[in-house]
Amino acid sequence: MAINTITDLLRHAGREFASNRCMTYRTEGGRADYSYADVLDRSLRVAALLRARGVQRGDRVVIWGPNRPDWGFAYFGTLLLGAIAVPFDVRAHESFLERIEEHTEPRLTIASQAQQDSAVLKHPPYVTLDTLAADSAGFAPATDLPDIAASDIAVLMYTSGTTGDPKGVILTHGNIASNLQAVPEIITILPYYRFLSLLPLSHIFEQVIGLLVPMIGGASIVYIDTLKPQVIFETMEAEGNTCMALVPQLLQLFMSGIEREVRRQGKERAWSILHTVARRLPFDFRKRLFPAIHRRLGGKFEFFASGGAYLPTALAQRWENMGIKVVQGYGLTEASPIVTANSLERRILDSIGRICSSVEVRIADDSEILIKGPSVFQGYWRDPATTAEAFEDGWYHTGDLGRRSDSGDYYFTGRKKNLIVLASGLNVHAEDVEQVLRETGLVTDAVVVARGEREGHTEVFAVLAMEDPTRAGDAVRDANHHLAQHQRISGHVVWPDADFPRTHTLKVRRPEVERRLAEIAPPVRAGTQAT
To answer: Is the peptide bond before 337 cis (omega within 30 degrees of 0)?
Structure first.
């Protein structure tokens, strides 16, 4: 069946997989299961409730709360009316939310009780997310709904990292549907797949990959009411999760937790030997070397879908050694979101994969990645000037840098704004240096910036997040030993907090790090020569 709109997907899945389990919600007090028929029915009832509250085609409806099935009911109910969903991040700053409210003028806000209690948004009336199912149960499923076209706006996406005037990415039903139609090129969704939803649904990555993609093949999604590691692992064991969409930082947090336990047990040497041996074995045999890890992950886990940030190759290889596949892709909100991806069968760990059929890609002369096609957004909400600046001859300028191999595989090389141009004219990709620092094993993370541009002697400067700050010099010396002469770190400082400030998808807020650098003690100088 052709998927032209998100509502097409909902209706098709509700009929085709009616009795399949679609969503599970685990809380401290118990669990609730919803079949595909239930999800369609409840979404239609929510549409009836929203219509009774005055929501009409084209109205904006804010959805503001944590991941749970009711979030999906609110999302689908809004779209069934031809209204526009405006997801809010529960961790976004109050002033940012207020600016988005002014920008979108929502008819209604569907918010959890915790968000309502914060009393940030005062203008639109509230519907409570926590009681949405109960409140809508008294309504008959909505009928006489408008026909939804691919050109109709589905969502306005605002990223929590936005500063100044907010930019709302306009995504139509057709934009997102075109991405969904390309999914079989990456993976065939099977009914037994059981996704665990951890990333916020207010982010387009989880919204599409974690909510809509499972529905293509009648798979199921598990939601939990806390992100405590112990609860995550207990859930994976109890529910038999097979897969998860996540960002590299989460993948690293899981691995760090495993390796802490290895060190606690004094098994570092055996751990290292197992990884060396596993890499040489056929993939299906590898999990036999790590039975305790697979038990910890529930015994049925098969793959991670990683996106949203650069994935260190060594980290991906670590998971692959243990018999768990890592499928990496590249995308952005403006592309709904997938641009390139490896497939489940063909995984090149240092590559962001090949182009999906929903988008065209061109590498500009300066290596910037340019995109256009049916999944690419048409502009920013009520901001024609910024929209015009973002496009050139129909191509959207992503601000990301990359290259294409002769075999058609793409490689991400960094953000254009993070490129450090030295006085010699040579370029340094901050992401390359950051990755070498991480691979020393002495830093938990790193941010590399340019210093001294105004004085005409630009240098590569590292900000280090560390468990043991006394090893900062060792980390820099080790990294410099593996870096080219022009890439070597000239100065560094240890970040004063346990971790860098991060977005809701765990990306480092680089502008905030750079702003705070001036407040940190004068940096330690380090020679650029390898030792």
So the answer is: yes
Give the residue ranges of the chain where pLDDT is below 70. Answer: 1, 119, 160-164, 453-456, 521-531
Position 29 scores a pLDDT of 84
Pair (168, 19) in one structural domain: yes
Convert the pLDDT of each residue in 200-241 to its tens digit: 999 999 999 999 999 999 999 999 999 888 999 999 999 999
**Which residues have CB under 8 Å from 406's CB, separation 6+?**
none
CATH code (residue 402)? 3.40.50.12780
In sign, the C-alpha dihedral spanning 112, 235, 205, 431 is positive
Structural domain boundaries, residue 317 = 247-414
Same domain, 371 and 429: no
Contacts 24+ apart (CB under 8 A), 477-485: 477/526, 477/530, 477/531, 478/440, 478/442, 479/433, 479/436, 479/437, 479/440, 480/526, 480/528, 480/529, 480/530, 480/531, 481/530, 481/531, 482/436, 482/439, 483/433, 483/436, 483/530, 485/528
45 plus 85 within the same structural domain? yes
Rg (CA), the chain: 24
Angle between helices 6-16 and 173-182 (to 10 degrees): 50
Contacts of 391-398 with CB under 8 Å at 24 or more apart are 395/362, 395/370, 395/371, 396/334, 396/335, 396/370, 396/371, 396/372, 397/364, 397/368, 397/370, 398/332, 398/334, 398/368, 398/369, 398/370, 398/371
Residues 60-73 have pLDDT tens digits of 999 999 999 999 99
Please identify which residue in the block is written with the tokens 């996704």.
195
